[in-house]
């Protein structure tokens, strides 16, 4: 595997470890206390995403690659960190889509979709450094993300808006699988309409 894949693999692995296991992993290489958090308890997902949005737009992840390394087609550490944090937050949306206030989760999804739009429309210069940027860089598992988003959208949007938004997102991110995703979206909308108490 190249360095980028190893980075993402380790980032995913860290999220599966308990604090004690994480300390054991880090100890041979660095003092675990350097990475300990002693501040307030974790924020809500919405607060985390708003902070991520502010940091992204403020250029806090932006890091250029030295000229000598550009021919290796590697992303900078800042770009890798942005992608890893984005994936973690999107995974959080999926995990909390059935338990957290649907309007808050809908807002979280929309903030993250707006950041992806910047990658695709060429307005992400302040977010990350890349010769060619696009949402494809993030490597999102849309089969896992979109069903959760469909459920959240179905209880927060009117039917006409639901259909419009679903079609736009599916056409943008699921090329080659549009029919399958649109069928799933319609079935989930019907399920939510028939059992609003279970979803609201």
Describe the protein's architecture and organization.
The protein is mainly α. The protein has 2 domains: 1-39, no CATH class; 43-199, no CATH class. The protein contains 9 helices and no strands. It has helices at residues 3-15, 19-26, 45-57, 77-96, 102-121, 142-154, 159-173, 178-194, 196-199. Helix 3 (45-57) packs antiparallel against helix 4 (77-96). The radius of gyration is 19 Å and the shape is globular. The termini are far apart.
Topology readout:
Elements: H1 3-15, H2 19-26, H3 45-57, H4 77-96, H5 102-121, H6 142-154, H7 159-173, H8 178-194, H9 196-199
Helix pairs in contact: 3-4, 3-5, 4-5, 4-6, 6-7, 6-8, 7-8
Short account of what is shown:
This protein is mostly helical and 200 residues long. The chain has helices at residues 3-15, 19-26, 45-57, 77-96, 102-121, 142-154, 159-173, 178-194, 196-199.
């Amino acid at each position: 595997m190249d360095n980028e894949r190893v980075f993402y693999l380790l980032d995913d692995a860290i999220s599966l470890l308990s604090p004690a296991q994480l300390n054991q992993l880090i100890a041979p290489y660095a003092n675990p206390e350097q990475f300990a958090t002693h501040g307030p308890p974790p924020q809500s997902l919405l607060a985390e995403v708003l902070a991520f949005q502010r940091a992204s737009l403020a250029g806090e992840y932006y890091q250029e690659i030295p000229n000598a390394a550009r021919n290796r087609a590697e992303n900078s550490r800042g770009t890798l960190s942005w992608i890893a944090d984005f994936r973690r937050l999107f995974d959080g949306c999926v995990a909390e889509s059935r338990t957290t206030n649907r309007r808050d989760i809908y807002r979280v999804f929309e903030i993250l979709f707006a950041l992806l739009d910047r990658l695709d429309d060429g307005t992400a210069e302040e977010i990350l450094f890349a010769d060619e940027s696009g949402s494809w860089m993030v490597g999102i598992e849309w089969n896992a993300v979109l069903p959760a988003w469909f459920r959240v959208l179905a209880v927060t949007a009117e039917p006409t808006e639901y259909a419009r938004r679903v079609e736009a997102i599916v056409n943008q991110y699921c090329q080659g699988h549009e029919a399958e995703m649109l069928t799933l979206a319609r079935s989930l909308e019907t399920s939510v309409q028939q059992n609003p108490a279970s979803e609201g």
